[in-house]
Amino acid sequence: MTDVLVVDDEPQIRRALRRALEAQDYEVIVAENGEEGLARAAAGEPDLVVLDLGLPDLDGTEVIRRLRSWTDVPVIVLSVRDGRSDKIDALDAGADDYVTKPFDVEELLARMRAALRRRAEERPPEPKLRFGELEVDLARRRVLQGEHPVHLTPNEYGLLEAMVTNPGKLLTHAWLLRKVWGRGYGTESHYLHVYVRQLRQKLGDDAAMPRYIVTEPGVGYRWGPDPDREPGQPSSSMSGSSDSHGVR
Amino acid sequence: MKRFLASRSASGVGVVAMGVLAPAGAVAIALALGSRNLAAATSLCLLAVVVAAAVGGRGSGVLAAFLSFLGLNYFFTEPHHTLSVRNAGDVVALIAFLLSALVVGALVSAVRAERARAERRATEAQLLNRTTERFISREPLALVLEGLAEALVTLFGLARCEFVTAHGVGTAIDALRDEPPGPAVTFPLETRSGSFGTLTVERAADRGPLSPSELALVRAVASQTALAIERAALDDQVRMARLEAESSELRAAILASVTHDLRTPLASIKASASGLLAEGAHYTEDEVRDVLRTVIEDADHLNLVLANLLDLARTRAGELIPSTQPILIEEVIGAVLQRMARRLDRVSIRTTIRPDLPAAEADPVQIGQVLANILENAARFSPDGSTIEISAARWRSSVQVRVTDQGPGIPTEDRERVFEEFYRRDAGGARGGTGLGLAISRAIVHAHGGTISVGSAPTGGAALTFQLPIAERGSTAVAPARSSEAAT
């Protein structure tokens, strides 16, 4: 059974979520405010947290920070706030994803599944990741589209690697810049534009109707598809794949 | 001499000078010509009297006439250099000269005075005209009164001119002269409907009191001023009333629009849900899914309407300020298409993005809202199975986005009106619009320094086009290469 902690002060939302999640065979724990949420997280050690930002006692971003001081449980923010800075703040504090209300349960479920899968199958050290006909060989830094090799520059490959190793996760501009270009970077989102566009071209992806790289405008990028599962492959953990977003 | 405006009449010294110099000159010329001919000298002296009267006025003319008479008597009648006259004919000539000189002088000076009066009347008329004009010009009252006071001071040689109005606007002009002021005269600024203040004028002590005609003129200015103040007050009342009417009209429109836009999807949601629950309802599983899809679509529409209302409130409060950054427009298009996938599943979408399209300097969230509104609008007028085309290209120094549909199009005469708040096109049975989406979109695009317009697509449908400025940074920037080995 997978335990999901829902922290939201609105009873209708708690009720709707409980019904929708239980219908998908999740075990649902609810909390009405930040303190209660933190307490239940500590007591129940849930597999995933769905967190509202506008809580009566603590701000949701603060709840994420406190959670991150002792656990890397996946946190999905569910909020009416749709400003860019709200999203970036929550992601920088360590949230895995951000869904705005009103939300589509199907979308929330997809994000939850992606986050749970990232946790469950932390990347093997030398895997090949497959996304349909796209194959990324992390060990040999090689990318194949069907039979054909895709030639990428180091920056393009760095971007691709950062994304495919965090499938479904919303990666902020600042996080990607630091991951690929290093610590000195973080605000040069126009670098990303240039390289994401080139990467898309080489992968045959279309920004307006993306197959691989999905945009969260002004916030970041998400690698859309889940990797194809190869049964029987041993799963082991790889440090760095459960990284939180950026420096606190 | 009272009738003459002080500034217009020659001074006392001038009167004497003209009266003396003109005949002296005439006598001197006659003597210089070496003639003792009384007739020639008489003619010259008559000319001198005319000149003196024309330049110096009646006083100069009379003085010149008598001096000429004496001069002629002294220099040109026998015996010379005495004031006695030997010849009876000369006596007649001299007396005739004096009389005709006096008459001519009087006539000439009367013409001169008449001209001066005409000039003054013109000045007075000009003053009254200017007063009226300035009041009509809608300049602030204080400014108009100040200009008027200055004109009065100049025209009447006042030491001081002061307007005091009933509602506290006042102005006082002091002449730049160190002359003690004479008695003050105060005129009420009155109309039939009431009193609006006072006008006080003080003539400099040495200029004497104002003449009756001057007083009449000042009184005329005072009553015009009163009328103007009264009219300005009435105008203000009318303007306020009109503003109030307009804003209450707008409030009514907002209320009607909000009620319509929020209630319609709500009604649909409630009808769908209660229909599913209704006793004896038989739905196939596909029908249930279809009904629920409608519910979700309506909820999405409600969400868009709410976002627009929020933006409307921000616009009203002057808070619709874009927080811009370089954005790739195709990414915003992609995000909006994903968000609206359900709403757009009746139509097919074709996107054409130039691969070398530069980044735009824009607020990604706000531009997403613009695109959502335009697409919502296009979807509403699109027949099932038709195509909505989205294209983005560089146009001059902007990124241009164009959305065309295959709907009925928008008539030329309505093309400006679609951007008006709460304007709703007759959807001809199509689902009701927000009436707000395009107005908000225009406000957002304008806040970006861009433009938005509507035209027609080659297919006859509507074509909405907007432009955003190209980002200075980012369009051609090349990031530094990473120093690790190249991936293959």
Task: Give your account of this protein's structure.
- The complex is a heterodimer of chains A (248) and B (488).
- Chain A is of the alpha/beta class.
- Chain A has helices at 11-23, 34-44, 60-68, 84-93, 105-120, 154-164, 173-181, 189-203; strands at residues 2-7, 26-31, 48-51, 75-79, 97-100, 128-131, 134-137, 142-145, 148-149, 170-172, 213-216, 220-223.
- In chain A, 45% of the residues are buried.
- By secondary structure, chain B is an alpha+beta fold.
- Chain B has 10 helices and 11 strands.
- Chain B is elongated.
- Chains A and B meet through helix 6, helix 8 and strand 11 of A and helix 7, strand 5, helix 8, strand 6 and helix 9 of B.
Q: Top keywords for this entry?
A:
heterodimer, A: 248 residues, alpha/beta, four-stranded antiparallel beta sheet, disordered C terminus, B: 488 residues, alpha+beta, 16% strand, elongated, disordered N terminus
Q: Which helices and strands occur, and which strands form pairs?
A:
The complex is a heterodimer of chains A (248) and B (488).
Chain A: E1 2-7, H1 11-23, E2 26-31, H2 34-44, E3 48-51, H3 60-68, E4 75-79, H4 84-93, E5 97-100, H5 105-120, E6 128-131, E7 134-137, E8 142-145, E9 148-149, H6 154-164, E10 170-172, H7 173-181, H8 189-203, E11 213-216, E12 220-223
Parallel strand pairs in A: 1-2, 1-3, 3-4, 4-5
Antiparallel strand pairs in A: 6-7, 7-8, 8-9, 10-12, 11-12
Helix pairs in contact in A: 2-3, 6-7, 6-8
Chain B: H1 12-32, H2 38-56, H3 58-76, H4 88-136, H5 141-156, E1 158-165, E2 170-174, E3 181-191, E4 194-204, H6 212-277, H7 285-316, E5 325-327, H8 329-339, E6 348-353, E7 360-362, H9 364-381, E8 387-395, E9 398-404, H10 437-447, E10 451-456, E11 462-469
Parallel strand pairs in B: 6-8
Antiparallel strand pairs in B: 1-2, 1-4, 3-4, 5-7, 8-9, 9-11, 10-11
